[in-house]
Amino acid sequence: MIIAVDGPAASGKGTLAAGLAQHYGLPHLDTGLLYRAVGLAVADGVDTPGFEAAAIAAARALDAEHLEDLASLTSADTGVLASKVAVIAEVRSALFDFQRNFATQPGGAVLDGRDIGTKICPDADVKLFIQADSKARMERRARQLEARGVEVDRYALFHQIEERDARDMLNPNGGFYQAADAHLLDTTQLGIEAALRAAIAIVDRTMALKAGGQTSS
Ligand SMILES: Nc1ncnc2c1ncn2[C@@H]1O[C@H](COP(=O)(O)OP(=O)(O)OP(=O)(O)O)[C@@H](O)[C@H]1O
Ligand SMILES: Nc1ccn([C@@H]2O[C@H](COP(=O)(O)O)[C@@H](O)[C@H]2O)c(=O)n1
Q: Per its UniProt record, what Pfam families does this chain match (predicted)?
């Protein structure tokens, strides 16, 4: 079974994808980490003329070692860098095979990102599109950063998240939109446990309908 989980920054898609993976005994890939690793690799050259070529080279050279420094990869600044390299078509195509191979491994997988249901796994068995309002997302991200001892300017963080979402939604080479057959799950009013229960219910219902020869979207 392939489960595709997409959504904007700090919507909780990674948390839900990890919970679904654990529940169904599937491997999980946070595809944002790939873009973050590329962004981090070219951080020093951001907005210089060689930036694009350097990002393409970094994406082509990416391997598992680049995904180890989670503290640097998951910072808010690296998220912005990731969204800058994510608009480059050759970066996206260089990362495609890694994601596709992960998704199509025997038994299936859970992947979360922006274009999983639309570009990476248009054939996914279940697609979830996670939403939460911008203020709730900002507050969740602020608390996550504060738990790590990072000082947070909530006003700046709110604008950074909105700016990143806009860049992702307008990305001409991206695929960040709700697929026609994706299930919308708004978690603004749901805690982590309730959101995971709702996601599991959607997956179970979709798979049961499919087994009975029906579609659920
Ligand atoms: N339903 C929820 N209610 C409250 N907090 C949540 C909920 N879902 C996730 N969180 C918390 O919000 C923060 C961001 O969640 P998460 O990393 O899963 O988001 P994301 O969409 O994967 O973010 P990004 O796209 O930036 O990687 C985490 O600290 C997580 O524990
Ligand atoms: N499938 C994806 C995943 C991510 N991106 C870009 O990377 C940025 C960081 O992703 P997070 O999920 O870790 O927030 C994101 O803002 C996108 O620009 C992508 O394009 N496609």
A: Cytidylate_kin
- Show binding-site residues for ATP: 7-15
Please state, in angstroms and rounded to a whole number, the distance separating the CA atoms of residues 217 and 215. 6
Q: Is residue 18 part of a domain?
A: yes
Domain that holds residue 114: 2-211
**Mutational test site, ligand 2, from 11, 16, 28, 31, max ligand atoms within 8 Å of CB:** 31
CATH code of 192's domain? 3.40.50.300
Query: What total number of domains does the chain contain?
Result: 1
Q: Single out the residue of 32, 34, 38 nearest to residue 15, CA to CA.
A: 32
Q: Cβ distance 100 to 153 under 8 Å?
A: no
The pLDDT tens digits of the residues spanning 56-74 come to: 999 999 988 888 999 899 9
Helix (H, G, I), strand (E, B) or coil at 128: strand
ipTM for the complex shown: 0.98
Distance (angstroms) between ligand 2 centre and the Cα of 166 equals 12
Strands 126-131 and 28-30: unpaired
For the record, the structure tokens of 147 come out as 């738990």
The alpha carbon of 153 and the centre of ligand 2 are apart by a number of angstroms equal to 22
Counting every residue, how long is the chain? 217
**What per-residue confidence (pLDDT) applies to 155?**
97
Nearest CA to ligand 1 atom 8: 12
Residue 216, domain member (yes or no)? no
